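Re: weekly structure request thread

Next one in the queue (493 aa):
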Amino acid sequence: MARRIEIDPLTSLGRHAQHVNLAPLVRALREEAAAVSHGLRDRTVWMINSAAQGGGVAEMMPGVVTHLRELGIRAEWVVLESDDEQFFELTKRIHNLIHGEGEPHLSEEDRRLFERVNRENADVLQQSIRAGDVVVVHDPQPMPMADMLRENIDITTVWRCHIGLDQETPATTAAWRFLEPYATGYHHAVFSAPEYVPSWFEGRSSIIYPALDPLTAKNHPMRVQTVVSVLERSGLLRMPGPTTGSPFDAPARRFCDDGTWQPAAAADDIGLLTRPIVTQVSRWDRLKGFLPLMRGFARYREGLGGDSAASDDQGRRLGHTRLVLAGPDPDSISDDPEGRDVLDELCAAYLTCDSEVRPDIVLVAVPMQDAHVNALIVNALQRVSTIVVQNSLREGFGLTITEAMWKGVPVLSNSRACGPRQQVRDGVDGRMIGDPEDLDEIANTLRSMLSSDELDAWGQNAQHRVHEHFLIYSQLGHWVRLLDSLTGAAKAA
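Done, posted below.
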């Protein structure tokens, strides 16, 4: 049932303010929060979502809750839970429908399951919530909870939807029709892009971009020695000499030609420090576009054989590039039942690749047993990447894009997905393609980027863009203003 999450200590805003490039942002946030009404300070803000790990929402939540507390606002994080696997299969279907994928049908039996699990969680949660509190519900999984909690408690409710599609299809229509009855339980809604706002939330919604905390384990600066140590301790890198750190409890594993998973660098060093590396790090999800990216990379490599125009150095650079497709251990993500199937499909496709190309495609399962270690591994992988790709067919926002941009790594994504085009400017922060399933376009754009003299400039531009628009201080400022406005209006009423 609904479970309150205890958050491990995070880097304080005071420490953020010690970084010269972050200090002005922290100062502006503190000044804004100091003007918040005392009415908000007397309330608890409850953040509710469906998972404590895996995905951008779970990653943002500790920073948002921790820093709200530092700003003098009581905040708690609660996760909806259920032992019924059918519930998470249903919510995954709803997730896919909102992204325009899947059979556009949801039954009354689905609704009964959806409401039953939410009722069970609401009954537990209402024992802790007090009149006057603010409940922020994230994404569709817990959406029915607002009405259920308001039956007995006078609270302010906000629905924070992180996903959407900027076009109407039979799939999206089915999803929104299913969810629309629960909208009456909310005073306000927050979306990641104007294109995502359904008609029944128009006039009572806001746009707040997701954002990253630059000093978390996944995003904080790393010295070269730290990057090397993390990669070596995780099994992603083989070092010739002695090392000072002991191996992590669970290594990153690599899918091998014999169909088994082995420590990632056991048979062959990936070349993370010596080769051009193209990386995508995401959940194992069909909508993330892993399969066309793999096939597009294979086409890129196959197309190099007849290139007589490239110089020797450039030819070696292009020919030595490796693709790293990395994602979490799917068994550890309770609300993502498709993860294993998607990973199995990728493994099968990998085995069909040409034998000369296959060694340069690396499927990596990143351990999830320790969230801190997982974050360090992703941080290090992104930092050694020449290009980070987010080839999503659909993407609500794409914090993996933001993470790479913050690290000064140019990004390859696509303009079909609304989230990436909120962030990446084509030819400025990286490159955008028009179709994430067009293998020739993927192959040609990879080749163009890897041959370009603009990689460093794109990375610098990308980092500056995140600093201006997508760090947590901006996000927190938006939340403080919104919550103060909503609770002030409720008090006046």
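The first helix runs from residue 13 to 16. The chain has two domains: 3-211+471-492, 224-469.
Next request, please.
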